[in-house]
Design a protein that fits this description.
Layout: H1 3-12, H2 21-29, E1 34-37, H3 44-54, E2 58-62, H4 66-78, E3 83-85, H5 92-104, E4 109-112, H6 114-117, H7 120-128, E5 131-136, H8 158-162, E6 168-172, H9 177-186, E7 193-196, E8 204-210, H10 214-223, E9 228-232, H11 236-248, E10 253-256, H12 262-273, E11 279-282, E12 295-300, H13 307-314, E13 324-330, H14 334-343, H15 349-362, E14 375-377, H16 379-386, H17 390-402, E15 406-410, E16 415-420, H18 424-431, H19 435-447, E17 456-458, H20 460-467, H21 471-483, E18 487-492, E19 496-500, H22 507-536, H23 542-549, H24 562-567, H25 576-588, H26 593-599, H27 604-616, E20 620-622, E21 628-630
Parallel strand pairs: 1-6, 1-7, 2-4, 2-5, 3-4, 5-6, 8-13, 9-11, 9-12, 10-11, 12-13
Antiparallel strand pairs: 14-19, 15-19, 16-17, 16-18, 20-21
Length: 633
């Protein structure tokens, strides 16, 4: 009886495993510690979810992103699997309740961030749990040589202290040999079983293209692309501007970035997943957990900050194993702009000392004092008051957060929570004589389920837009209802929140993290240099360059990247007469592949192969009606 396969079929409706999944699952079931390097889309989550379902007890999953944790918990719950996460907790009682549920409530998965793991209460309750597996997701974060180093990941070893005999599995989609060794050392994994699937993607064409007018090139590429596509841009405003430009040119597009509300993100994502929009323009906030099989093109408008980021994002194309393209567009000044954007904006130790002292002064915290309350924080006002550069200051706050000196929560939009305190009948009686009040209340009730039973986040701007009423009017209405104790209404007018994690010590606090900050800066410089070298190297196959970066030897050229296509000779694959004849027929008038077959004594396979080759060489292009024509110079 193959129990893992039965569980795969029961919950995920798949009839077979992807490469190496079954071997990893069996090793975990045999109580072997594992390090699994699987490419983006390789199904890493199943490698710990299936053995955890088979074994008695609960699996602790360490994950760095709240959104990713919430997505995985929702997906498991929708399958009837009890899972929870220590995210979005407003009160100590919420934390207490969830931890009790994990001890006594037959839960199978507890998702937790490494920062939350440092809480003594969390550690004490985990000690009482029947832990069957420890899964460290995005394990490269534990290494200072990794591309998303999180110092709090170094605290994960406390789990081995609490449960020394529990098996550990560490998972990542991209890591060099140095990072893999660091993962093993930091997690104290003695002789773990290493699983590394080849990162080579034979169906994915990596191309670095130099263009001055990127918008023109993006339009040209997406007009010939019939499947879904992702366009990665470097800023939130750029995602909206590009999506607007594409929509204005007849290409249905959405946008996605970290500043959108949860509702907006879900709406944009679902429209793209259901093909209501063909293209999603996004920052790198659109990443982990994205699994759409028919993405045939990923375009990077800006140079990514590391090979790891580029490899993961580009790897979201071609998961259905069909031919796909990963295109990196480079403008005349992009390399210099990238150096300035990433390297000049890195906060050094002296700058961190400055903003840390200013932050304490801003909230009037005395030396040696620990203020554990959440402070509403207006980022723009803070930068203006102390004449601080915005991007460098933002990066500095993220560094202080990452090293555990503060908790920096970005809100971006006006946040509000609402709970109705009175019964439906009492509410109806109160609003029946006021048309505007009734309209606002009924709209909120229709939009947000469960708002009578729990505090619910609401988007006031969205409601105002739906009703074509001023935001201020809705705020005034809800504040009046709050005063009358008909609702419990809270509104936060700041764009962030700051919580101090340690007593104020100024230079001493920064000195403790200075060594790691300097090391991380060195890593950042190294990674940017590697990306620039990749872009500028037009002599070696692009796949070879990427595989070499990840210490994977690969002797043959991929044959489909821009370097290989440049060096490929037409006669090596097709008869010149066949290619010339197809070009002549298309030049006379646009034709479909079926029409070309009827004109030639060639098989469908031969015609498609030549057309694919000519498309890759950019000698022809495909119209919206799936005909082929000569590409205009």
């Amino acid at each position: 009886m193959n129990l893992p396969l039965q569980i795969l079929e029961r919950y995920w409706k798949f009839s077979k495993f992807r490469p190496q999944q079954q071997e990893i699952i069996q090793s975990v079931l045999n109580q072997q510690n594992c390090v699994a390097l699987l490419p983006t889309g390789g199904g890493k989550s199943l490698c710990f979810q299936i053995p955890a379902l088979i074994k008695d007890g609960i699996c602790i999953v360490i994950s760095p992103l709240i959104a990713l944790m919430n997505d995985q918990v929702l997906a498991l719950n929708n399958k009837g699997i009890k899972a929870t996460a220590l995210t979005n907790l407003n009160q100590l009682s919420d934390l207490d309740r969830i931890l009790d549920n994990c001890i006594y409530g037959d839960y199978k998965f507890l998702y937790i961030s490494p920062e939350r793991l440092q809480n003594p209460l969390v550690q004490e309750r985990i000690r009482l749990m029947n832990i069957n597996l420890i899964a460290v997701d995005e394990a490269h974060c534990i290494s200072q040589w990794g591309h998303d180093f999180r110092p709090a990941y170094r605290s994960i070893n406390v789990l081995k202290t609490l449960h020394p005999n529990v098996t550990t599995i560490a998972l990542t989609a991209s890591a060099t040999q140095r990072v893999v060794e660091d993962i093993q050392n930091q997690l104290n994994l003695e002789q773990p079983k290493l699983f590394k699937h080849s990162f080579f993607r034979k169906n994915l064409s990596y191309q670095t293209l130099r263009f001055e007018d990127k918008n023109f090139k993006i339009l040209e590429l997406l007009r010939t692309n019939t499947e879904s596509a992702i366009v990665y841009a470097g800023s939130r405003s750029a995602t909206q501007q590009l999506a607007k430009m594409l929509n204005n040119n007849g290409i249905a597009s959405g946008y996605y970035h970290g500043g959108l509300s949860t509702h907006e993100k879900e709406q944009q994502y679902q429209q793209w997943m259901t093909n209501k929009t063909k293209v999603i323009v996004a920052t790198n906030a659109f990443g982990m957990g994205i699994d759409k099989a028919d993405v045939s093109m990923v375009i990077h408008v800006n140079i990514p900050e590391s090979i790891e980021h580029y490899f993961q994002e580009a790897g979201r194309a071609g998961r259905d194993q069909n031919h796909a393209q990963a295109l990196l567009l480079v403008g005349p000044n992009d390399i210099e702009i990238t150096k300035k954007w990433y390297l000049d904006q890195l906060p050094d130790v002296s700058f961190l000392k400055l903003i840390y002292k200013k932050l304490n002064s801003y909230f009037q915290i005395a030396y040696g004092e620990l203020s554990e309350e959440k402070h509403g924080f207006n980022f723009n006002s803070f930068c203006a008051l102390y004449e601080l550069p915005k991007r460098k200051t933002y990066n500095g706050l993220k560094v202080l957060d990452r090293h555990g000196l503060i908790v920096f929560e970005e809100l971006f939009k006006k946040k509000a929570t609402l709970l109705f305190l009175v019964s439906h009948n009492a509410l109806s009686e109160h609003i029946k004589h006021n048309n505007e009040l009734r309209l606002i209340v009924t709209t909120i009730l229709r939009t947000y389920e469960g708002i009578h039973s729990q505090e619910t986040s609401i988007d006031i701007e969205k409601i105002a837009k739906m009703l074509q009423i001023e935001v201020g009017t809705i705020m005034e209405t809800l504040n009046t209802l709050n005063t009358k104790e008909i609702v419990k209404f809270k509104s936060i007018n700041t764009d962030a929140q700051i919580t101090f994690s340690q007593p104020r010590e100024d230079e001493k606090a920064i000195h403790r993290i200075s060594k790691e900050v300097k090391a991380h800066h060195h890593v950042k410089h190294t990674k940017i240099t590697a990306v620039i070298n990749y872009i500028e190297n037009d002599n070696i196959c692009k796949s070879k360059q990427l595989l070499s970066y990840f210490d994977e030897p690969f002797s043959a050229n991929c044959g489909v990247c821009n370097v290989c296509l440049k060096n490929k000779k037409t006669t090596t694959t097709f008869k010149k007469e066949t290619v010339d004849l197809i070009l002549k027929l298309i030049k006379d008038q646009p034709r479909s592949s079926r029409a070309l077959e009827s004109c030639l004594s060639l098989s469908t396979k031969e015609v498609v192969a030549v057309l694919k080759y000519l498309l890759e060489l950019e000698k022809i292009e495909q119209t919206q009606t799936n005909q082929f024509k000569i590409k205009c110079p």
